[in-house]
Amino acid sequence: MKTNPGRFFEDYSLGEVIRHAVPRTVGAGERALYHALYPARGAVSSSDEFARSVGLAASPLDDLVAFHTVFGKTVPDISLNAVANLGYAEGRWLRPVWPGDTLRSESEVIGLKETSSGTTGVVWVRTRGLNQRGEAVLDYVRWVLVRKRWREVEVPVHVPELAPVVAPEALVVPEGLDFGRHDFGLSGEPHRWGDYAVGEVIDHVDAVTVEEAEHMLATRLWQNTAKVHFDVTQREDGKRLIYGGHVISLARSLSFNGLANAHFIAGLNAGAHVNPCFAGDTVRAWSEVLDRAETAAPSVGALRLRLVATRGAAGELRGADGKYLPEVLLDLDYWALLPR
Amino acid sequence: MKTNPGRFFEDYSLGEVIRHAVPRTVGAGERALYHALYPARGAVSSSDEFARSVGLAASPLDDLVAFHTVFGKTVPDISLNAVANLGYAEGRWLRPVWPGDTLRSESEVIGLKETSSGTTGVVWVRTRGLNQRGEAVLDYVRWVLVRKRWREVEVPVHVPELAPVVAPEALVVPEGLDFGRHDFGLSGEPHRWGDYAVGEVIDHVDAVTVEEAEHMLATRLWQNTAKVHFDVTQREDGKRLIYGGHVISLARSLSFNGLANAHFIAGLNAGAHVNPCFAGDTVRAWSEVLDRAETAAPSVGALRLRLVATRGAAGELRGADGKYLPEVLLDLDYWALLPR
Amino acid sequence: MKTNPGRFFEDYSLGEVIRHAVPRTVGAGERALYHALYPARGAVSSSDEFARSVGLAASPLDDLVAFHTVFGKTVPDISLNAVANLGYAEGRWLRPVWPGDTLRSESEVIGLKETSSGTTGVVWVRTRGLNQRGEAVLDYVRWVLVRKRWREVEVPVHVPELAPVVAPEALVVPEGLDFGRHDFGLSGEPHRWGDYAVGEVIDHVDAVTVEEAEHMLATRLWQNTAKVHFDVTQREDGKRLIYGGHVISLARSLSFNGLANAHFIAGLNAGAHVNPCFAGDTVRAWSEVLDRAETAAPSVGALRLRLVATRGAAGELRGADGKYLPEVLLDLDYWALLPR
To answer: Most buried residue, A216, C48, C161, C166, by CB count within 10 Å?
Structure first.
């Protein structure tokens, strides 16, 4: 067999490091496409001039371009036979990605646990994105439910201990970043870090009705090859399942309206793709401020935010039974960096 | 409230200058996307080599990339609560936009007039696009019908005097432009400025059936956030209204076939988005030569052109009643620069 | 008439060289769009770093970007009134296309033959793509069935002799290419040239359901103006015919899975667009190894491959009657370069 059948649960071993294929140079083209695919408007990732005014050398690529590119490379090795993407934890953005950088990924298997059904198992990996100088740009844990090849094989159990939240002290502020001369007129909103209160809920107001062509363009751009996103014959209902990361980028971009100055994503605490998203869905977003923290840089504050993508109303997440509402698509918990 | 509710009629005051948010660096990615989204084929904006052959340093971005980028920035402040985009006047392209340039916009309120209904008002703004050196690249007037917040408030009336046509002497020829060695073989057509006669009508022959994904990609690329373009829940008929500028770019690109050498847009005299455009419409274009003028550059002539986008036949614009035909989408009056 | 009506059969004369219009600079934007439009993952055209590791200065644009760009320019002169694209032969990629290069095309008429119906004729052209230094980057023969203007005119017959296969000695290995330190881990697959056996059939497994927006974005990007791709009023069934080259790129990109190390296309031996492709079709691909050859570079081997795009099953090409099956879209015969 010349083609990649993907790995099954038995094919992973604890501590193994998988070097993922196809390094990718990203640049001006990916930036333009990101702006065409998502309603992204953050001033730092839109403008070289603005980025320079806050101490950077140029406008870095959107933090989610780094995430999707690094994630996409892991798909052939991690999630080609995955039944579900179960969660994210301990994600940290370690260094901006600049136009012209070349990214590759590697993943260490840090946990394995068979499910009670005996036909699947959970695999935990810590994935690192590296640039052309071998510097880590991103680091995160995700775990997926993967099919077993045979029922009988036993695999040693190891469930990793994962921090429920990235400690604010561990967040990395991009080198040189100084919000001291941040232009709140040009960035689009006057709100500083101190203007956000824990518990505050922000309805981001705007919405996007999703098209097949758009999510496929995006998903291919990240070289994510999971068949369900592209091939209508993969599911009985003939629908293409939209890549969860597409929903993350949609929601994050929509959150500009109310969080225009949350320029950077610094940490990914947790995330759940609660319900599948399909073309034709009209996606809106709302955020809840979960926590606030100072950072090592005096001009930079961190907000811990819950970002929810939904087909329903802002502020609604779970029903009376404590379960996610069927309209909810994404529940993401992340740290953003804002001017203090 | 952290989000932008948009301005209402009462929120504008005469003489006020609004600095619009989110400067944007444009470059190779935007150029490629422009060519993917529209059937643009002008040699100057397709080829660095061709641009050099007519005296420029490199291929500038399409003049409409400048227009859309500058226009898009104004939407959150000018047209978020607009009922209609009523017109354009006195538009001038003042300087090419080069890959790597960063654009921002500012608008001066130059006119205000309540409508007889008492629920809306007309706002006139003069918008300027500026590059990273603070040089104006584009300047135009547009006026929009905006909702009032309260019925009772009275606003002083000022209707600006606007020139019906940009005077040819006021048109700016890009610095260095010299069509003396213009290669009519490579540009696609042999027609010079002198080959066009006033009154001549050109059927541009080609047509494009518009898709939802395409107009949304384009409109997002210009960071235009008007909800009606993206969200099917905004209108009772569940349709997404296509950004008028998308139709302008479609028509202008289609006009290559017959106006291949009309390389630059130098002036915008007037423009009406006559009927709404929706996905599924098959758009074609025709032009009428309205006037001819010399410019300060001996090798460069100006043509005043009516550019019509329509779902109907070329040459047909108004019915017996003098009203625009329902098939007509756009009636644009502009100055183009051609080799003499 | 200011617009281009296209040429008819009588408008071609043997030996004539047609210089096609609109040179085009390609770069980072076109590369990103290629990755968004097709599931392309070849390491050499994805990564500057990987390209350097095999002796190149940077990552060249995908060989099919060169093909489509060069081909697109010929459409207004060669195939605007074409009834069918009949075949390709003697195609050779002569030099990589680098970001920033400007391409133009010219075609020599090398064959003419009226069909028995008297209403059409076959035109053979040898098309060359040239960069800004006038160096040939690509050379191929294609022949098309073109409408006659009048029934009565007689045109001298000349049918060119075409090689059934490009001789391996004539294939050009990109200057500097050295697969000696090729990283098979990063490229995605361990298979070398020597691992492929003549007669071997590879099912590329993945599939893509095609959308209207995608094929139109692609076809416009190559400035291919044939009306049938964009305008639903062109065909009685209201369908837009997908540009055959879109299917070539889809199939070639899908073939990564099994041919990840077939980094370059060096020769095009033959090709047939067997059945039309329309939006909604789910396209898959399979390859057959037709031949193997050494090249002048010791680390580089050539594989002659049949690449089939189909809506049906892998390995199935023709029915019992010897005719192509209705599911088959493309039968392409090409030379690829791989590490030995």
So the answer is: A216
- Chains interfacing with A (3 or more CB pairs < 8 Å): B, C
pLDDT the model gives residue C136: 98
Final residue belonging to a domain, choices B127, B162, B197: B162
- Asked if residue A279 belongs to a domain, the reply is yes
**How close A193 comes to chain B (CA, Å)?**
12
**pLDDT reading at C189 higher than 80:** yes
- Same domain as B141, residue B225: no
Q: Is pLDDT above 80 for A317?
A: yes
CB contact (8 A) between residue C28 and residue B29: yes
> Could you tell me which of B54, B141, B45 has the C-alpha nearest to residue B97?
B45
pLDDT in tens, A232-279: 999 999 999 999 999 999 999 999 999 999 999 999 999 999 999 999
Assess whether B238 and B143 both reside in one domain: no
ipTM: 0.96
Which domain does C51 fall in, by range? 9-339
Q: A218 is written with which tokens?
A: 């995006």
With an 8 Å Cβ cutoff, is C331 touching chain A?
no
- Determine how many CB atoms are found less than 10 A away from the CB of residue C198: 11
Tell me how far apart the alpha carbons of residues C264 and C55 are, in angstroms, rounded to a whole number.
Answer: 14
A225 falls within a domain: yes
pLDDT attached to residue A150: 83
Residue A38 touches partner B, C-beta closer than 8 Å: yes
Same domain? A94 vs A22: yes
Of C2, C4, C225, the CB nearest to B39: C225
- Both B134 and B251 in a single domain? no
The neighbours of chain B, by the rule of 3 or more Cβ pairs under 8 Å, are: A, C
Distances (CA, A) of A42 to A186, A286, B7, B130, C213: 10, 17, 21, 19, 27
What band does B310 get if pLDDT is binned at 50, 70 and 90?
very high
Give domain status of residue C4, yes or no.
Answer: no
Residues on chain C touching B190 (C-beta within 8 angstroms)? none
> Between C32, C33, C212, which is nearest B211 by CB?
C212
Chains in contact with C, where contact requires at least 3 CB pairs less than 8 Å apart: A, B
Residues in C closer than 8 angstroms to B205, CB to CB, are 3
Number of domains in chain B: 2
d(CA B3, CA A185): 14
CATH number at residue A144: 3.10.129.10
**Predicted confidence (pLDDT) at residue C113 exceeds the cutoff of 90:** yes
A104-129 pLDDT per residue, tens: 999 999 999 999 888 999 999 999 99
Give the Cα separation of B54 and B178 in Å (integer): 5
A13 and A114, same domain (yes or no): yes
Contact assessment for residue A42 and residue A65, using Cβ atoms and an 8 Å cutoff: no
**Is pLDDT of B82 > 90?**
no
* Residues 6 or more apart in contact with residue C178 via CB below 8 angstroms: C54, C55, C297, C299
DSSP per-residue codes, C69-128: HHHHHHIIIIITTEEEEEEEEEEEE-SPPPTT-EEEEEEEEEEEEE-TTSSEEEEEEEEE
Beta strands A328-339 and B17-19: pairing type?
A: unpaired
Query: Rounded distance, CA C65 to CA C103, Å?
Result: 11
- In this predicted structure, the answer to whether residue A7 has a pLDDT above a threshold of 90 is yes
Collect all residues of chain B within an 8 Å Cβ-Cβ radius of residue A208: 216, 230-231
Q: What is the mean pLDDT of chain A?
A: 96
For residues A9 and A106, membership in a common domain is answered with yes
The confidence band for A81, taking pLDDT boundaries of 50, 70 and 90, is: confident
Last-in-domain residue among B106, B129, B162: B162
Residues B102 and B20 in one domain: yes
B262 within domain boundaries: yes
Are A135 and A81 contained in the same domain?
Answer: yes
- Summarised one tens digit per residue, pLDDT across range C141-173 is 999 999 998 877 777 899 999 999 999 999 999
3-class DSSP state of A331: strand
